[in-house]
Amino acid sequence: MRTSSVIIFLLFICISARAQQADQIKLKDLQQLINKPSDKVQVINFWATWCAPCVKEIPLFEKLNQENTDVEVTLVSMDYDLDPNPEKVYRFMTRKNLKSRVVILAERNPNNWIDKIDKSWSGALPATLIINSKTGKRKFIEKELHEGELEKLLEEAGK
Amino acid sequence: MKRVTGFILCLTILIAAHPVKKGYEVGDTATDFKLKNTDGRMVSMSDYKDARGFIVIFDCNTCPYSKVYNERIIALNEKYTSKGFPVIAINANDGSGDTYDDMVSIAKKKDYKFPYLFDETQKVARTYGATNTPHVFILTKELKVAYIGTIDDNARDAEAVTRHYVEDAVEALIAGRPVPLTKTKAIGCGIRWKDK
Q1: CB-CB neighbors (< 8 A) of B190 in chain A
Q2: pLDDT tens, A53-93?
Q3: CB count in 10 Å sphere of residue B108
């Protein structure tokens, strides 16, 4: 009996140690990330675990993140608006073994801040913001991206 | 013949140079539609002889935001139909879970007292500029767009809402006052468009 509880306890430790976590950030942190001067092109993707087209396009961002050292990918989870418990996001990150940086935007009442991220954004997910602080170019797109489209956007941003 | 070609050329340039308009803004006059309801009948706004306006909501069966707002949409219709502002829900989503049959079963299950219309070609959603669900367009009887946006300021918790954007807009229209906030934004599911 004791042995089995020890095993269960050890298993639990292993599983929780493996679970990936994400920082919860506020709007001002996101704005800092958007506005910071960087040698790298910032690719910021807005997604949520409940959003099927978001989940579908995430591998494109993962690939971009792994294959390009001059690009910085940030996956901003918008799950908080419906569910403040981050566990669902953590589980998703672990299950998909995400390598890109994931943050959770922990803000309420989106009407107050959607325009502050991009005026052209309706609030629909997925959406992607590309910023090249060296050329000053900025691209915002509100749709699911398919193979090749991300690269095209990066080119337009002067990567 | 030359003049005709010239005219067509001019027209083409004019059309090409004209910026693509992305749906309605507040103050625009909306066009009526004729779409199939879940009971099989075709519905237009012109069918409503006594309406003082409309709460047109682009909705979805599968979107979690549509799900959390479902009861609130039913309540809006209950509250405002008798006051002359009925709800008309439209589903323009392409894909599984949002077929016409799926719409029929959800309308039955939830006992919708308002039409739930199938925008199969997505033309109405595109014309209106609907982007994410649920996306509300409040129109006057003359089909003037009076409000575009979300239902309230708290998707997660109906009890904790502090601003009822849609109710505030409809109440203002009923009272003949200006709508306090004519445009809002919310996080939501992007409408699933057909590949062009």
Answers
A1: 51, 53, 124-126, 142-144
A2: 999 999 999 999 999 999 999 999 999 999 999 999 999 99
A3: 11
Nearest to B90 by CA among B144, B51, B129, B53: B129
Contacts with A108 from chain B: Cβ below 8 Å: 154
Name, in order, each residue with C-beta under 8 angstroms of B88's C-beta and a sequence gap of 6 or more.
B43, B45, B54, B55, B56, B57, B114, B115, B117
- Indicate the residue type of B191: I
Backbone angles phi, psi at A73, to 5 degrees: -95, 130
Cβ(A43)–Cβ(A61) below 8 Å: yes
- As for the ipTM of the complex, it is 0.85
Element containing residue B8 per DSSP (H, E): helix B2-17
Minimum CA–CA partner of A85 in chain B: B156
